[in-house]
Amino acid sequence: MSIYDFTAKDAQGADVDLSGYKGKVLLIVNTATGCGFTPQYEGLQDLYEKYQSQGFEILDFPCNQFAFQAPGSDARIVDFCQSRYGVTFKQFSKIKVNGKDAHPIYKYLKSQIGGSMGGRIKWNFTKFLLDRTGAVVKRYAPTVTPAKMDSDIKELI
Protein backbone atom coordinates (compact mmCIF):
# COMPACT_ATOMS: atom_id res chain seq x y z
CA MET A 1 0.00 0.00 0.00
CA SER A 2 1.17 3.53 -0.77
CA ILE A 3 -0.24 7.05 -0.85
CA TYR A 4 -0.96 6.47 -4.55
CA ASP A 5 -3.63 3.88 -3.68
CA PHE A 6 -5.99 6.52 -2.27
CA THR A 7 -8.58 8.90 -3.65
CA ALA A 8 -10.11 11.96 -2.03
CA LYS A 9 -12.77 14.49 -2.93
CA ASP A 10 -11.46 17.90 -3.85
CA ALA A 11 -13.14 21.08 -2.66
CA GLN A 12 -15.40 21.00 -5.73
CA GLY A 13 -16.56 17.44 -4.95
CA ALA A 14 -14.61 15.65 -7.69
CA ASP A 15 -12.71 12.44 -6.94
CA VAL A 16 -8.95 12.91 -7.12
CA ASP A 17 -6.82 9.79 -7.58
CA LEU A 18 -3.55 10.40 -5.75
CA SER A 19 -1.74 8.19 -8.25
CA GLY A 20 -1.75 11.35 -10.40
CA TYR A 21 0.91 12.71 -8.03
CA LYS A 22 3.44 9.93 -8.73
CA GLY A 23 6.93 11.36 -9.11
CA LYS A 24 6.10 14.54 -7.17
CA VAL A 25 7.34 15.70 -3.77
CA LEU A 26 4.21 16.12 -1.65
CA LEU A 27 3.39 18.11 1.45
CA ILE A 28 0.09 16.96 2.94
CA VAL A 29 -1.40 19.21 5.62
CA ASN A 30 -4.61 19.36 7.64
CA THR A 31 -5.70 22.97 7.88
CA ALA A 32 -8.26 25.30 9.42
CA THR A 33 -9.34 28.83 8.59
CA GLY A 34 -9.96 29.98 12.16
CA CYS A 35 -6.83 28.73 13.88
CA GLY A 36 -3.85 30.56 15.37
CA PHE A 37 -1.75 28.74 12.74
CA THR A 38 -3.96 29.85 9.82
CA PRO A 39 -1.39 32.47 8.74
CA GLN A 40 0.82 29.52 7.76
CA TYR A 41 -1.21 29.47 4.54
CA GLU A 42 0.96 32.38 3.40
CA GLY A 43 4.16 30.40 3.97
CA LEU A 44 2.68 27.32 2.34
CA GLN A 45 1.80 29.37 -0.73
CA ASP A 46 5.36 30.78 -0.78
CA LEU A 47 6.79 27.24 -0.77
CA TYR A 48 4.37 26.21 -3.50
CA GLU A 49 5.34 29.11 -5.73
CA LYS A 50 9.02 28.45 -5.12
CA TYR A 51 9.03 24.70 -5.87
CA GLN A 52 5.90 23.84 -7.85
CA SER A 53 7.68 24.07 -11.20
CA GLN A 54 10.21 21.52 -9.89
CA GLY A 55 7.61 18.88 -9.07
CA PHE A 56 6.35 19.96 -5.64
CA GLU A 57 2.67 19.81 -4.67
CA ILE A 58 0.76 20.74 -1.53
CA LEU A 59 -2.41 18.84 -0.70
CA ASP A 60 -4.60 20.81 1.70
CA PHE A 61 -7.17 18.91 3.77
CA PRO A 62 -9.34 21.21 5.92
CA CYS A 63 -10.36 19.62 9.21
CA ASN A 64 -12.96 20.84 11.69
CA GLN A 65 -12.06 18.37 14.48
CA PHE A 66 -9.93 20.78 16.52
CA ALA A 67 -12.11 23.32 18.35
CA PHE A 68 -14.32 23.63 15.22
CA GLN A 69 -11.75 25.93 13.59
CA ALA A 70 -12.68 25.05 10.00
CA PRO A 71 -16.35 26.04 9.86
CA GLY A 72 -18.33 26.58 6.70
CA SER A 73 -18.62 24.83 3.38
CA ASP A 74 -15.74 23.70 1.19
CA ALA A 75 -16.51 26.59 -1.18
CA ARG A 76 -16.35 29.09 1.67
CA ILE A 77 -13.01 27.68 2.86
CA VAL A 78 -11.54 27.88 -0.66
CA ASP A 79 -12.81 31.44 -1.08
CA PHE A 80 -11.24 32.46 2.25
CA CYS A 81 -7.88 30.88 1.39
CA GLN A 82 -7.74 32.34 -2.11
CA SER A 83 -8.87 35.83 -1.18
CA ARG A 84 -6.87 36.13 2.04
CA TYR A 85 -3.69 34.18 1.22
CA GLY A 86 -3.68 33.79 -2.57
CA VAL A 87 -3.72 29.99 -2.28
CA THR A 88 -3.33 28.20 -5.60
CA PHE A 89 -2.36 24.70 -4.42
CA LYS A 90 -4.85 21.82 -4.36
CA GLN A 91 -7.56 22.07 -1.74
CA PHE A 92 -9.68 19.11 -0.79
CA SER A 93 -13.04 18.65 0.87
CA LYS A 94 -13.15 18.86 4.66
CA ILE A 95 -12.21 15.58 6.36
CA LYS A 96 -11.60 14.04 9.76
CA VAL A 97 -8.02 13.12 10.64
CA ASN A 98 -8.58 11.32 13.96
CA GLY A 99 -11.00 8.71 15.24
CA LYS A 100 -12.93 5.93 13.60
CA ASP A 101 -14.13 8.27 10.83
CA ALA A 102 -10.62 9.51 9.97
CA HIS A 103 -10.02 9.68 6.23
CA PRO A 104 -8.06 6.64 4.94
CA ILE A 105 -5.27 8.95 3.73
CA TYR A 106 -4.71 10.14 7.28
CA LYS A 107 -4.95 6.64 8.72
CA TYR A 108 -2.18 5.71 6.30
CA LEU A 109 0.00 8.78 6.98
CA LYS A 110 -0.23 8.30 10.76
CA SER A 111 0.70 4.62 10.36
CA GLN A 112 3.87 5.64 8.51
CA ILE A 113 5.16 8.22 11.02
CA GLY A 114 3.72 8.69 14.49
CA GLY A 115 3.96 11.96 16.34
CA SER A 116 4.11 13.15 19.92
CA MET A 117 0.63 11.70 20.42
CA GLY A 118 1.43 8.39 18.75
CA GLY A 119 -1.16 7.60 16.14
CA ARG A 120 -3.12 10.82 16.49
CA ILE A 121 -2.90 14.22 14.88
CA LYS A 122 -2.29 16.80 17.61
CA TRP A 123 -3.79 19.88 15.94
CA ASN A 124 -4.39 21.78 12.72
CA PHE A 125 -1.41 22.31 10.43
CA THR A 126 0.31 18.99 11.12
CA LYS A 127 2.33 18.35 7.97
CA PHE A 128 3.64 15.22 6.23
CA LEU A 129 6.44 15.41 3.65
CA LEU A 130 6.61 12.65 1.04
CA ASP A 131 9.39 12.00 -1.45
CA ARG A 132 8.99 11.34 -5.17
CA THR A 133 8.39 7.61 -4.54
CA GLY A 134 5.51 8.35 -2.18
CA ALA A 135 7.44 7.46 0.98
CA VAL A 136 6.55 9.52 4.04
CA VAL A 137 9.90 10.98 5.09
CA LYS A 138 9.02 13.55 7.73
CA ARG A 139 6.20 14.70 9.96
CA TYR A 140 6.08 18.27 11.25
CA ALA A 141 4.26 19.58 14.30
CA PRO A 142 1.75 22.41 13.82
CA THR A 143 4.24 24.87 15.33
CA VAL A 144 6.79 24.21 12.55
CA THR A 145 6.39 27.02 10.04
CA PRO A 146 6.58 26.39 6.31
CA ALA A 147 9.83 28.38 6.09
CA LYS A 148 11.48 25.86 8.45
CA MET A 149 10.62 23.05 6.00
CA ASP A 150 12.27 24.72 3.02
CA SER A 151 15.63 22.92 3.25
CA ASP A 152 13.93 19.51 3.63
CA ILE A 153 11.81 20.16 0.53
CA LYS A 154 14.80 21.45 -1.44
CA GLU A 155 16.69 18.25 -0.56
CA LEU A 156 13.91 16.12 -2.09
CA ILE A 157 13.48 18.26 -5.21
Keywords:
7 strands; 4 helices; 157 residues; alpha/beta; single chain
Our estimate of the beta-strand percent is 15-25%
Mean pLDDT: 93
Characterize the largest beta sheet: strand count, sense, and whether it forms a barrel.
5 strands, mixed
What is the terminal separation in angstroms? Answer: 23 Å
So what's the overall shape?
A: globular
Q: Over all CA atoms, what is the radius of gyration?
A: 14 Å
The proportion of residues forming helix, as a percent range, comes to 25-40%
- Stretches where pLDDT is under 50 for at least 5 consecutive residues are none
Largest sheet: spatial strand order: 5-4-3-6-7
Number of strands: 7
Supply the number of helical segments.
4
What is the SS-derived class?
alpha/beta
Strand/helix succession:
EEEHEHEHEEH
How would you describe the overall organization of this protein?
The structure is a single chain. The chain has 157 residues and is an alpha/beta fold. Helix content is 25%, strand content 20%. It has four helices and seven strands, in the order βββαβαβαββα. The strands form two sheets. A five-stranded mixed beta sheet has the order 5-4-3-6-7. α2 (74-85) links the parallel β4 (56-62) and β5 (90-91). It is globular, with a radius of gyration of 14 Å. The mean pLDDT is 93.
